[in-house]
Amino acid sequence: MLIGSIIKPQIASHIQLYYKRTNFTESIISKCPSLKGRFLPTCWLFNGMLHVIFEGTLGDIPGESIFCPEVLYTKEQVFLPDGGLMSIDWANLPQSQSSISKILIIGPGITGNSDSQYVRVIVIEAIKKNYTVAVLHGRGIANNELLTFKVHCACAFDDYAYIIDHIHSKHPKANLVGVGTSMGAGILLKYAVLTGENCKLKALAAVATPFYHAHAAKNAENFWPYFGLPGKFILNILRRISKTFQPQLEKWPEELKRCGIDFSDIGKSKSYYDFDDKFTAKISGFKGAEEYYNEASSINQLYKVKIPVLALSSLDDPVISAEVIPYKEFCENEKLILMTTNNGGHVGWFTGNFMPKRWFQVPCVEYLEAVLTTQEN
């Protein structure tokens, strides 16, 4: 049985593409070898949960390691219209900023930052193609002080829109493209939905996208096949985040009372749905988790996307079920390409049996390059 589990992902390793066939999409795919090949996962990471476990341990060592080099950044603080604070960590920033021709903007996952391994592999791959890279950090993330009674969440579309406009205004001649991972993918994709023809990004790669947040929250708690471990894993992450927010948010006792936020009750949350219902939704101005999740989701609005988008999803993702991947919508919008693999977990996609390295950044950057070169021609 174990041997079969190891062998099956190696055999069933073909990449599947779902898209509306047009001259543009066919041209893009023809320029992207990794979209037409196979993904061979690390043989001993033969299911999605194993990818997640490895990702959370050896796959997330900060700084220089045998798995990923260190990246040096220049930090820029950006103050939002309401007085809130975000920041950008810039990589490969030339002395003469007028020479910047293309900028890759990264929206990390819920706990991600510029030092996360899965972010650094994107940065390194992009630098190979001569991109200047901007990693976005939301309110309260990566040591950003909370200056207003608002935290980073899955509905941070306005914040992302503002900071992307900020980048565009500083570098009006540069082509802007994006890569989002997990929650960051959801935010950037919804940003593309909401901005339509006015989107400042020329293209987007969305990795492990939560197209339908409510389903993801409930799926993570399912007993089978991972015994509810994904939900517990995410809940622990959210609890850690809330503990960093708590002393800062207690500067606004009246606001906490008005929203009905009780940190002792939040600490007793039984699931990450429960946590979002008690904290994230309330502080973000929603009645509860369902309303918050509906606002964050893009599943029913993909027809509004007007820029080229590549979405990469793994069918064994233990956090985001393959059941809600919107295949039909991708086949109806000529701007979209959906790429699925049978194995890869959640922002994992480790390959190589002796020294596992991530792979997903290769098709992402390859796709963005193909779009830019096609648009230029």
TrEMBL record:
Keywords: Hydrolase, Serine esterase. GO terms for molecular function: acetylesterase activity; monoacylglycerol lipase activity. The active site is at S182 (charge relay system), D317 (charge relay system), H346 (charge relay system). It comes from the Eukaryota. The keyword Lipoprotein does not apply. GO terms for biological process: medium-chain fatty acid biosynthetic process; medium-chain fatty acid catabolic process. The keyword Ribonucleoprotein does not apply. Residues 156-324 form the Serine aminopeptidase S33 domain. Belongs to the AB hydrolase superfamily. AB hydrolase 4 family. This is Serine aminopeptidase S33 domain-containing protein. It comes from Stentor coeruleus. The lineage of its organism: Eukaryota, Sar, Alveolata, Ciliophora, Postciliodesmatophora.
